[in-house]
Each structure stands twice: as C-alpha cells, then as structure tokens.
Amino acid sequence: MNSLALFACSLAAVALANRADAQSVHIQAYVDGRSNLILDDDSATWQHFDWAAPGRLDCNMGAEMQPTILDGVTWWPGWPDVPDCENRDCGGCFSSTIVGLPHPLPNADFTPQIVVHHARGPVTIVEWPSSTNGWRAVIEFEDTYFGAADWYDVEFSFSAVGVPYCTSTINSSGAAATISVSGSLSVAVNDLVLHAQGGPVGRPGLFFYGLAPAELPFADGWLCVSPFAPGLVRLQPVQVIDMSGTASLAVDLTSLPPWAPIAPGTTAYFQFWFRDLPAGGAGSNLTDGVQATFLP
User: Fold this and answer.
1) Distance (Å, rounded) from C-alpha 7 to C-alpha 9?
2) Alpha carbons 69 and 77: distance in angstroms, whole number
3) In whole angstroms, what separates CA 284 from the centre of its chain?
4) Which 3 state secondary structure label does DSSP give 6?
5) What is the chain's mean pLDDT, rounded?
6) Which of 34, 79, 214, 282 has the fewest CB atoms within 10 Å, counting from its CB?
C-alpha cells in the first residue's frame, strides 16, 4: 500500500482500539466525487455517481488502486470498469458486494449516527433504516468540489430507538405496562410510532410527551414526564387497549404545538396513561417512560 493507505490503516487501528461500543461500522475509503455506501445486515455495496469510483482515481493511468476498509477488513470492490477502471461518472453503477462484516446492522429499529474522524466533504445518511427498506442504510460521501481524492474516515454507529427509564406498577391485567418506540428518530423521515404493552384490555388511554423527565407518584403509578414548563402534550386521538393488551399511535412531528416542538437534537420523554379499575385503586395507571433524542 502507499502512504495514504498506510495512514488509513493506522487510523483504523487507533479508532478500533479506542472504541468502547462495538455497535458501529468503521468506514475508510479513498473518495473522489460522489458515492453512496449501502449497508444492509452484514453486507456493503458501493453505488457510484460522479468522477472516479472509490479507490480508483487515475488507475487508468497506472495509479495504485486503494481498498475500502470496513472495521479493519480490507475490501477490494469489483466494478463494471466501463469505460475503464476509473468508472468515471458512471451515473449510479454498483460495485460488488462484501458479505460477513464483523458488526452487522440490526434487523430491528435502531438510531443511526455518523461520527466523522476525517473528511473534507459532507458525509450524510441519505436513506434511513426502517421496516419498509429492511433496515438498510445508505451513506453518501460527497467529494465533488475538491481536487483529486482524499481518505475519508467515519464511524456509522447504531443504537436502539428509545431508552426506557422510570418505572411502572402492576395494573389490573396482572402486568406492569411498558412503553416503547419504533420507526426512526429522524425528524425528516417522520415515522415515529409509540407502543404501550401490558395494559388492561378495553380501557382507553392517551399517549403524551414532554421535554423533561420526572418520577412522581400519580394515580396508581408514576408520572415519568415533567408536568412543569413547557408541560405535558397530549397526543390525540384516545387509544383503546386491544385484546393483546397493547395500544399504538403514529406521531406526526409536524403537528406538534409550537411551545413544545420536536426538532433535531431534541430529547423528548413519552408515556401512556390509561383508565384502570382495580379494587381500591385510584382509577388510572401509567406505563414507564421512554426517552428519545431526535436526528435531522
């Protein structure tokens, strides 16, 4: 390898040694122009658009080709090589696919994030993982407006959507109700869904959120969202707990009140309140809480 490739490998060793969480994919590539890296389960594929394909700059003039390095795995993508090995401006041609990467993306809800170690152009997620695309993620590397090519070193990290907190108590169903979220936390994608589980069948309830956590005794359970300014936001309509003890609500982030908006960078706290009539009870109960930090 030349000095650039050796530099990239040394960065890989440092980043991998310092990384505390294996839930990520460490990506290094010699980028010229615009290319998308498609991550799907334990596989990766390049799609190239403008200028020379990753690692292929000036290969038609004898320059050394460069690999893509994924979590320390050196990958030499195959290309159509039309009209030559650069695949210049191929308008969306695909490379070969590498399978068996050390840290596969989960086939479930997760929150992705790009951490840039070195890049001279933008690196952005242009297709967000969701159930509709099989939890695939597409990352765009944009080096179009710079001369020659450069090494890009980024981390694509992923974690579960929503973090549970606070507590809940046993309700008349015999279980303690809990809340979870699905979809992505992208404000632009706007596909967040709230789910309550373990509630009493046939009882009505409301999802609500706020911008600060709490843990206050309330009714037969605990209020996990702060009632203080800016206060609680009720998410309509009322939901009725179904025969499986669950209730769900798709949240339209564009319809929330201006005094409690959810924007990129906002951490919101969600909970579900429901009617309940256990002997001697106060007449209602709640799930635990779930917190979520939103992305662009």
Assistant:
1) 5
2) 10
3) 34
4) helix
5) 89
6) 282
208 in helix, strand or coil? strand
Residue 140 has which token pair? 């765009």
Place of tokens 């979520």: 292
Cα distance between residue 47 and residue 87, in whole Å: 11
173: exposed, middle or buried (C-beta count within 10 Å: 0-12, 13-18, 19+)?
middle
* Token reading at 167: 């507590």
List the domains of the chain with CATH numbers: 3-160 (no CATH), 163-293 (2.60.40)
pLDDT digits (tens, 9 = 90+) for 236-250: 999 999 999 999 999
Strand 221-225 with 193-197, pairing: unpaired
Give the H/E segment covering residue 49.
strand 43-50
pLDDT at 119 over 80: yes
Give the chain's largest Cα–Cα span.
84
Q: What is the reported pLDDT for 186?
A: 83
CA 3 – CA 140 distance, rounded (Å): 25
Instruction: Output the pLDDT for position 214.
Output: 96
Least confident range from 23-27, 85-89, 250-254: namely 23-27
Cα–Cα–Cα angle for 9, 128, 186, rounded to 5 degrees: 115
Residue 42 amino acid letter: D
pLDDT, one tens digit per residue, over 63-78 is 999 999 999 999 999 9
Backbone angles phi, psi at 15, to 5 degrees: -65, -40
Q: What b/e sequence results for 15-24 when a residue is b if at least 16 CB atoms lie within 10 Å of its CB, and e otherwise?
A: beeeeeeeeb
Q: SS3 letters for 223-275? A: EEECCCCCCCEEEEEEEECCCCCCEEEECCHHHCCCCCCCCCCCEEEEEEEEE
Give the position of tokens 């030499």.
Answer: 76
